[in-house]
Amino acid sequence: MSTTEHAQGAATEPVFAVRNLWKVFGPKAERIPGDARLGELSAAELTARTGCTAAVRDVSFDVHPGEVFVVMGLSGSGKSTLVRCLTRLIEPTSGTLHIDGEDVRAMDKSRLRELRRHRAAMVFQHFGLLPHRTVLDNIAYGLEIQGMGKVERRARAEEMLAKVGLDRLGDRRPGQLSGGQQQRVGLARALATDPEVLLFDEPFSALDPLIRRDMQDEVVRLHREEGRTMVFITHDLSEALRLGDRIALMRDGGVVQLGTPEEIVAAPADDYVRDFVRDVPREQVITLRRAMRPAVGDEAITGAVLPPSTRVVDAIEAVARTGEHVRVGEDGNVLGVVCHSRLLSVVAGLDSGHGGEPRGEKAGAI
């Protein structure tokens, strides 16, 4: 998603608005969020002193309409607990949680059922398909629960089956499908109810690398075609960087950094994040908006023009082909240039992390 689209999304009401959310497991869990001294303890110290575990610790964020919001972290970081709190599959201990401005924590059982059946659909790591039902009937199951008629729900299921590329496999049983095909069925089942937001809880972690890549492609394609809001949980950094418009990186129940993939790779918040992204190929994440420098002399009138959203890896190809710098242009104006040395600095991790971010002045006209 572009910066402009994010700005537009931020100007509207968020799909999810989460503030100071806690989920504490253990005796008298509700006392932990309200006690600043206990809240400041490390995970190990908190457990030793109280017998409680803070799986989600004072987390705040918004999910904007149409964005892919990724929550990532290592095992035990709290990411799966967090996504389950969003629809109260797990009850939060404290904090506020809204969907489209409606208080999720105040919902009664009827409103929660409506939320889970119509507004937010979950795709789990374990497919959860019914082995005695055909693929088509598995996809239509949620619609059946909603009370939709057989003819209508089967037509909808066939439409979703085609959308995920399994249109000739509707009469098969789940056991006759590969792991990747089964996960596609799970995705089609979630899409069938036409939810406002899709919640993915590490859906591809059990798949082989090549199949996992195919499923990531499928998510990218569906998002490009539909623009549906997605919250995606993963422990895989490359998956997070590939899918996410923004990423919340968790550790010990808290969010240590929230930002775009480029912000997290180029400007890590602390040593933990810096170590996390150490092996990321920076040129595949950093864009020319961050890598550029001001034009000098006649640089503003020579060289190929690339948009500021171009990744450095693509600019390297252009510079290597022409042997000269490239201009970074937007709306007919030159914002800056990128030369051999700037590209090498990004690849080597020697760039300042701020690049030539424009500050209201244009270097020239294209």
Automatic annotation (TrEMBL):
<dbReference type="InterPro" id="IPR051921">
    <property type="entry name" value="ABC_osmolyte_uptake_ATP-bind"/>
</dbReference>
<feature type="domain" description="ABC transporter">
    <location>
        <begin position="41"/>
        <end position="277"/>
    </location>
</feature>
<dbReference type="InterPro" id="IPR003439">
    <property type="entry name" value="ABC_transporter-like_ATP-bd"/>
</dbReference>
<dbReference type="GO" id="GO:0016887">
    <property type="term" value="F:ATP hydrolysis activity"/>
</dbReference>
<dbReference type="GO" id="GO:0016020">
    <property type="term" value="C:membrane"/>
</dbReference>
<dbReference type="Pfam" id="PF00005">
    <property type="entry name" value="ABC_tran"/>
</dbReference>
<keyword id="KW-0547">Nucleotide-binding</keyword>
<dbReference type="InterPro" id="IPR017871">
    <property type="entry name" value="ABC_transporter-like_CS"/>
</dbReference>
<dbReference type="GO" id="GO:0005524">
    <property type="term" value="F:ATP binding"/>
</dbReference>
<dbReference type="InterPro" id="IPR003593">
    <property type="entry name" value="AAA+_ATPase"/>
</dbReference>
<dbReference type="GO" id="GO:0006970">
    <property type="term" value="P:response to osmotic stress"/>
</dbReference>
<dbReference type="InterPro" id="IPR027417">
    <property type="entry name" value="P-loop_NTPase"/>
</dbReference>
<comment type="similarity">
    <text>Belongs to the ABC transporter superfamily.</text>
</comment>
<dbReference type="GO" id="GO:0031460">
    <property type="term" value="P:glycine betaine transport"/>
</dbReference>
<dbReference type="InterPro" id="IPR005892">
    <property type="entry name" value="Gly-betaine_transp_ATP-bd"/>
</dbReference>
<keyword id="KW-0129">CBS domain</keyword>
<keyword id="KW-0813">Transport</keyword>
<protein>
    <submittedName>
        <fullName>Glycine betaine/L-proline ABC transporter ATP-binding protein</fullName>
    </submittedName>
</protein>
<keyword id="KW-0067">ATP-binding</keyword>
